[in-house]
């Protein structure tokens, strides 16, 4: 195993345990992947994010064949679709975190921009979030649904399911997933209150200064 893959496996185990220990994932919920030069590392199916063994993390090749480690997550199609449509993505984090999942269950959010610009950091680290319809977990149709977005969104909320966040590397994807969860918590807590969002000019200024996701 080359040093880059070994480090990626160790980073996955460490950061996934951090997510689990802090309550961003419970039980065997959630799955994470990292793109390599010769394939994709994925968390195995039916394993908690807090108990990953680096050597047993699943690996698929560029054609989607399982080549090493334990059997990959059933959400493999979801991860593949992000990498195929977002060439700059180096990692994908899918959680069932409480507040973002709560947001995905609400019937009155804007599906084309379901996380409004409440704070500068959600603009800088997460970007525009698309709410997509519910599809049964593990259904290959989830991959088709993401491909149909043509790489426009770095982050989506799966209806009645939870967030999927891509990033240029694993650390940035984890940080964006955490930022999304905290913003979703604020949004749900503020429902029914008169809330001030960042203006279009303020959002544009952030995108000019820090770039777009």
Q: Whole-Å distance between the termini?
A: 32 Å
Radius of gyration: 17 Å
- The secondary-structure class comes to alpha+beta
Helical percentage = 25-40%
What does this molecule look like?
- The protein is of the alpha+beta class and 213 residues long.
- It is 38% helix and 16% strand.
- The chain has seven helices and eight strands, in the order H-E-E-E-E-H-E-H-H-E-H-E-E-H-H.
- It has helices at residues 3-21, 76-85, 98-105, 120-125, 141-147, 170-189, 200-210, and strands at residues 31-36, 39-42, 58-60, 66-68, 91-94, 129-132, 155-158, 162-167.
- Strands 4-3-2-1-5-8-7-6 form an eight-stranded mixed β-sheet, with helices on both faces.
- A hairpin with a 2-residue loop joins strand 1 (31-36) and strand 2.
- Helix 3 (98-105) crosses helix 6 (170-189).
- It is globular, with a radius of gyration of 17 Å.
- The model has no long low-confidence stretch (mean pLDDT 97).
């Amino acid at each position: 195993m080359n040093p880059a893959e070994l480090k990626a496996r160790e980073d996955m185990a460490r950061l996934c345990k951090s997510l689990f220990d802090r309550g961003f994932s419970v039980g065997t919920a959630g799955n994470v992947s990292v793109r390599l030069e010769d394939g994709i590392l994925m968390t195995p199916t039916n394993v908690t994010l807090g108990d990953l063994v680096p050597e047993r993390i699943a690996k698929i090749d560029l054609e989607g064949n399982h080549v090493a480690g334990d059997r990959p997550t059933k959400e493999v199609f979801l991860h593949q679709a992000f990498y195929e449509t977002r060439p700059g993505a180096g990692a994908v984090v899918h959680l069932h975190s409480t507040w973002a999942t709560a947001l995905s269950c609400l019937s009155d959010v804007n599906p084309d921009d379901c996380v409004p610009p409440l704070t500068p950091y959600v603009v800088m680290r997460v970007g525009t979030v698309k709410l997509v319809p519910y599809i049964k977990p593990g259904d290959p149709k989830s991959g088709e649904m993401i491909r149909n977005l043509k790489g426009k969104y770095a982050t989506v909320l799966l209806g009645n399911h939870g967030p999927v966040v891509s990033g240029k590397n694993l650390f940035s994807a984890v940080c964006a997933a955490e930022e999304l969860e905290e913003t979703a918590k604020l949004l749900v807590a503020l429902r029914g209150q008169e809330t001030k969002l960042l203006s279009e000019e303020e959002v544009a200024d952030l995108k000019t200064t820090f770039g777009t996701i």
